[in-house]
Amino acid sequence: MRYYQLMRERDGTRRILVVGDESVFAAPLADVFEQREGRADVEVVETVAEGLDQLAAHELDCIVSAYVLPDRTGIEFLEAVRDTSPDLPFVLVTDEGDEAVASEAITAGVTDYFRTERASDQPGMLAARIEDAVATYRSHRDLTARNEELHLYERIFQQMQEGACLYDADGRFEIVNDYLADFYGTTRAALEGQPSRLVERLREEGDGDPFQALLDGDQAVVRGEKAFELPNRGEVFVNYRLVPLRIGDDIEGVVGVARDVTERRAREHQLARARAESQELIDGMNDTAWVIDSDEQFLAVNDAAVERMGYSRSELLSMDPHDIDAGLSDDEITSLIENMPEDERQVFETAHRTKGGEVIPVEISSSLISYRGETAILSVARDITERKQYEDQLREQNQLLEQQRDELEVLNQVLRHDIRNDLQLVTAYADILCDHVDDEGVEHLTTVRDRAIHAVELTETARDTAKMMQTRDSENEPVAVRPVLEDELEDLGKRYPDADISVASAIPSAVVRANEMLASVFRNLLTNAVQHNDKDVPEVVVTATTRGDEVAVRIADNGPGVPDEQKATIFGRGKKGLDSEGTGLGLYLVETLVEEYGGDVRVEDNDPEGAVFVVELPLAE
Question: What pLDDT digit, counting tens, does each position of 553-567 carry?
Fold first, then answer.
């Protein structure tokens, strides 16, 4: 293989693979590209096999291939490329000029067709054809990436519980969610494409053009609150935040998130007016405040207490702390009141129950005061709902992290133990093969290959396990069983061509609630049925049926079967790790995923021999 590196910079470099005679294609192309501003790396190989290896190992921008090659024709090479890279530019250069070759190339999906003598005599024309094809290919790829990015944002927007949108460079709505459309009293389709009132106000009232500053990358965020007049609602208040949308190195628009704070502003106005009208103490407090006498009766409450508790002022003044407290017993409340410290505050947590039955966690700070000439207690209760929610979330996150750490430790143990043992076997048998390569060495070579395959499959299972751990808290979604199972059956046949793999009956069109890891469940069980089979020709029979509200997938083999005493532990239930009685990480992963999907997995005896692994999953509603 010959490699012409015309410039070393990666950004913008066109990577071109030439398959054929080096003197005909590589050198002339290299000379042409070296004289042009655009950067290009030209690699030359002689055979289709080498070309396919390069395609698998590198991200290519174009392939230039001769029609006549040592191992296959250029058309056959093109067909192989199209199996994995349907859009990659492919230029065929041939001595054959008849219409049959051209027609065959066009049918196979060739990008361009060039005569050998023209490629040799006019490399500039060939280079120009390549540049055009690469430019079109990259433009389509970039457009696809941008559309995928925008589609992702659209999905995220729809899950948000506040107004979210994407503005184009002109300040028009490009993507909006239902929340924002409802705010404007219209539909998403009607709103998209319309100019944003917020952007117009920012450009009219702001210092300079903050929206353009976001597009230019000169400003990271624009935020604030503004009032609008809407025909269907009157004056509304919006809290907004705008940030640039970056895709790669380019700013493609502006992402806006807005929240309707009209009710909050109304409440703030009511509270401000109530504070202005207050006649005595605790004026201006945001927290609820209570004045309690020695007989445990309320002497005074502030406006915040009236608003948040849902009682009228007269109702609250006829009550006592026992009537509203939902976190302490009567004896505990009485003890706190009777044991108030004289010179310091008394701080504790409890909960208040509103008139509507809502329980609000609060932190109470109490101190002795003089009220109307008598000693009383002033208790200020602060709503700590957000703090408690944060503490609960933090506790759950810590528990999840601890669980993930434990599972990752299991994964690390398996990787260190199993793969190390496999590689030691590979080394041992390799040493044996160093001394002789004859018929006797075939057996050792087979063992080396089997062990290497096992190591690769183990790393794939470990990868799936790590991915499962990372997506443990994600939502399951409807997944069709048939295409997933059919793909894994096809893949098993490719990996084990000597195995007899069959499907007993048509796979039903069942849909379950799962995720992308469902494929790993079937992959591990199918692989297990072949890999642990002691027959010369492993037989695997798959049956899928629906019954009631579930689908059952049965994977039967003709292997040695599973002893009864191992059936309860084969999935690694209970203690998991290197000391587990289970058979390995793959079956542990199967059981973990199936349980997350709300299903069950078990192993039964096959008739007359072998084992049957049964996966039962509830159907999606």
Answer: 999 999 999 998 888
